[in-house]
Specification:
single chain; 310 residues; mainly beta; 5-stranded mixed sheet; 4% helix; 57% strand; disordered N terminus
């Protein structure tokens, strides 16, 4: 019996539970960090801004309802959120033809920038500066829009495959777009110039992370690929399940890669498996590192968890 206990002890030591949590009113589709705040967009059309220290709600916005295919009014699911300084950016479903609504929240005012009448299949949007936003369209096109001049500065077609995700670097001057092609396209956000096209995966990429010189992808081909743009080194982590989510920092790579909605933490340099984070009971939608030892996760279970890593 003593030998059996010792055999299982290492596994127990590597399992980590969340230290703090936020419970939303419905499943969470996306979160973003902005100074001392965290913004969350949920399936019931709510945009909620929390104090990152106290986890108390600072402000909440309810998007107008939309009509479904039967003509009934329903909540407008939110696809992506972002924040920069004191402004917030939101993409939601318009309920019409697969087109997206894009909103700006500033000075407690909710303003619609694009609607279904603009016929833009926007999936994700992020600030690259206070007055410019980058849009990712279903057609895997990148559009840069000037909020002050109210015009597009460029429209860039990347691969002809269906868009999945894009991520910005810290400076917001570069973006990585990924799609069902398995490629990652690195581009300059200010002029739309394609800098590099990288073969990352053999099948659809669900999500991408961009941290310093590292690009990491989570893919349907049951692997995560880590690519260093400084030396062109490529490494893989394989899984028995689809890899849906990914996040990076100086020490770790975090992945959702099993059917139990656990998060697996690997050492970024050695790719050695370090920890398993257990808590979510539905699919995870977003992973974000707050610092080298704190991970934040959000899921369709309406939970935002905060994890402390050793």
């Amino acid at each position: 019996m003593k030998k059996l206990f010792l055999l299982f002890l290492p596994l127990l030591l590597f399992a980590i539970s969340p230290i703090k949590e936020i419970t939303a009113t419905s499943g969470i589709k996306d979160i973003a960090l902005c100074q001392n705040k965290i913004i969350a967009g949920s399936e019931d059309g709510k945009v909620t801004i929390y104090n990152l220290k106290t986890l108390q709600i600072i402000k909440s916005f309810q998007l107008p309802k939309i009509k479904d295919f039967m003509g009934d009014l329903i909540d407008a699911p939110i696809g992506s959120v972002d924040c920069l300084n004191k402004s917030y950016l939101v993409v939601s479903d318009s309920g019409i033809g697969g087109y997206g609504n894009v909103w700006i929240i500033k000075d407690n005012n909710l303003t619609k920038i694009f609607s279904a009448k603009d016929k833009l299949s926007v999936i994700k949007a992020q600030f690259i500066s206070n007055d410019k936003i980058l849009l990712g369209l279903l057609s895997n096109e990148a559009y840069l829009f000037d909020l002050n001049k109210k015009k597009f500065l460029y429209k860039k077609q990347l691969t002809p495959s269906k868009f999945s995700d894009f991520a910005l670097n810290k400076e917001r001057d570069k973006a990585v777009f990924v799609s069902e092609s398995g490629k990652a396209d690195l581009m300059n956000t200010y002029n739309g110039k394609l800098l590099q096209s990288i073969d990352m995966n053999l099948d659809m990429i669900f999500q991408v992370a961009f941290y310093k010189n590292y690009i990491a992808t989570a893919s349907k081909d049951r692997s995560a690929t880590i690519y260093n743009i400084a030396n062109n080194k490529k490494q893989k982590i394989t899984s028995n399940f689809f890899v849906y989510n990914v996040a990076l920092n100086d020490k770790y790579i975090a992945l959702m890669m099993d059917e139990k909605n656990n998060i697996t933490i690997f050492d970024l340099n050695s790719l050695e498996k370090k920890y398993t984070l257990k808590g979510h009971n539905k699919m995870i939608s977003k992973l974000l590192f707050f610092n080298n030892n704190t991970l934040i996760s959000a899921g369709r279970d309406g939970k935002i968890y905060f994890w402390k890593l050793p």
